[in-house]
Amino acid sequence: MDNQNFLLKYRECFGCSTELVNDSYGCFDCNIFFHKKCVELPIKISHPYHRKHQLILESDFCFCNLCQVSHSGLFYRCSICNLDFHSECLPPSVIKDKKHHEHPFTLLLRPNSFTCDACDTQGDNVSYICSTCNIQVHKDCISLPRFIRLTLHRHPLSRNFFLSIHFHDSRTWDCRICYKKINMEHGSYCCSRPNCEFVIHVKCAISRENKFWYDTTELENPDEFKELDESGNLIFRVLRETKVGDNVVAAEIIHSSHDQHSLTFNDEINDNKHCNGCMMPISSSFYYCSCCDFFLHKACAELPRRTLLWFPQSSFRLLTDGIFKCWLCDYDCSGFSYKTANGLVVCLRCATTPHNFTYQAKEPHYLFYDAENVSNCSACGRRRDRKGSYICKDCNFVLNSGCVTLPKTARHNFDEHPLKLVYEDNNDYPLHHWCDICEKERDSKFWFYHCKVCDNAMHPKCVLGEYPFIKLGSKYKYKGHPHPLSFIQKIDYHPLCEKCREPCQDLSLECEEHGCNFVGHWKCLRVFSGVYSYHH
Ligand SMILES: [Zn+2]
Ligand SMILES: [Zn+2]
Ligand SMILES: [Zn+2]
Ligand SMILES: [Zn+2]
Ligand SMILES: [Zn+2]
Ligand SMILES: [Zn+2]
Ligand SMILES: [Zn+2]
Ligand SMILES: [Zn+2]
């Protein structure tokens, strides 16, 4: 008998046809190998699955009466009843797995179904019971991790066979992944931090379909869990402070996204201007540059350099310049973005939209991100080619990632007043609704922008344009041209695009180099990848 682990790699056990690991036996001359556990299988067994007769170990080709598949290798045969059971398929009568449960589990065979106390789903015939804890579980559920880290939640979660006392008040609990009820009498993963109240179904934690969005990792013990430290992680320096009410705020800062000038704090709303971070109208306190057309929401200026988002990635880094396509909302954007080590980029609007929150439309809706959802969006009526939308946990209201971040107010040259996002057209007269910009029909079921003073109603697409989140003047490095280009939108005259020779009426790029008259449509010069250009 040989025991050369190195040479055993990539070979299979003759007994159970799975990969060999340490502790194997074999003969290189005959090219036959076994796991230690397979070599040590008893020749004769009495198994509760077939009590009438003893089962004899044989090696050949068999059709397993348990898993209904043909196997070659070791199996147990009852020659009287002509039944074969692959050795791996016969459930062991006792399973001891101290790492996952302190007591041993005993096999219980019953010709009927049961509800697993660990995962709250049905099982058939074969179950395991722990008589100390009075629980009945699937074989696979014995080895469920006790503690997991879930990307969606910032604390470790622990497995429970029934919800612990601090969840036992009169309320019912929803799973924070699928927003369906948690059965208090069965297993779940929950956060044990006080007041955290975060619970998920075991089936949602381990489902393969959820793996991409809600990645879980087993923790040996919850103390190994490290929270991401976001302090000392800011990208601005305070020059001067001031008092606003009871709070001290930074009155003047140097922000690394615009370090040539200092930025000054302002408390007024100026929805004519857009934030250079998130590209949304300035609707709350902000910083501005007194020399340049540069604005940042206070909240956007204070974003950490490294952070965790609810997305399935471990860490995101803040980038403050570049032109990119947001992975979630699909918009081409300039401004700040969060990027992972493997190149996934999201805009600030998407990055700061949580996994679940209350959205105030005409009525409030409690939304959560459902990666499987393919319904039509309640705002625009469109269905996304990619899966996933924000859906209401109580009704059939659905928003795709593009519409969930639509600005509540917007401006357009067509109307001198600020335009308000409206969720429903209750005006039954006239029978047909029109967009005052494109003069085409408007479906009254869907959202639109409205000016109360002029009673103008407009498609969101017509108000915002095709590229609402690219700021004019942003720089772009185009591979096909030696000089830096910047975004423009010509109003008075329309030079011809170098690519398609059509006039540049919509968003375009123009060369900054004196004497070089290169111009081209953005739609002609853009390339179809996540990140178009980063300056650093
Ligand atoms: Zn084996
Ligand atoms: Zn028999
Ligand atoms: Zn189970
Ligand atoms: Zn669930
Ligand atoms: Zn902003
Ligand atoms: Zn986005
Ligand atoms: Zn329109
Ligand atoms: Zn040029």
UniProtKB/TrEMBL annotation:
Which superkingdom?
Eukaryota
Q: Which UniProt keywords apply?
A: Metal-binding, Repeat, Zinc, Zinc-finger
Statement: the UniProt record of this protein carries the keyword Zinc: yes
Concerning SUPFAM superfamilies, the annotation shows:
Cysteine-rich domain
Q: Which InterPro entries match?
A: C1-like_sf, DC1, Vacuole_Formation_Reg, Znf_PHD, Znf_RING/FYVE/PHD
Q: Which GO terms describe its molecular function?
A: zinc ion binding
Q: Which residues form the Zinc finger PHD-type domain?
A: 12-68, 115-179, 274-330, 434-501
Instruction: Note the SMART domains from the entry.
Output: PHD
Family matches, as PANTHER family: C1 DOMAIN FAMILY PROTEIN, PUTATIVE-RELATED (PTHR32410:SF165), CYSTEINE/HISTIDINE-RICH C1 DOMAIN FAMILY PROTEIN (PTHR32410)
What protein name is recorded for this chain? Zinc finger PHD-type domain-containing protein
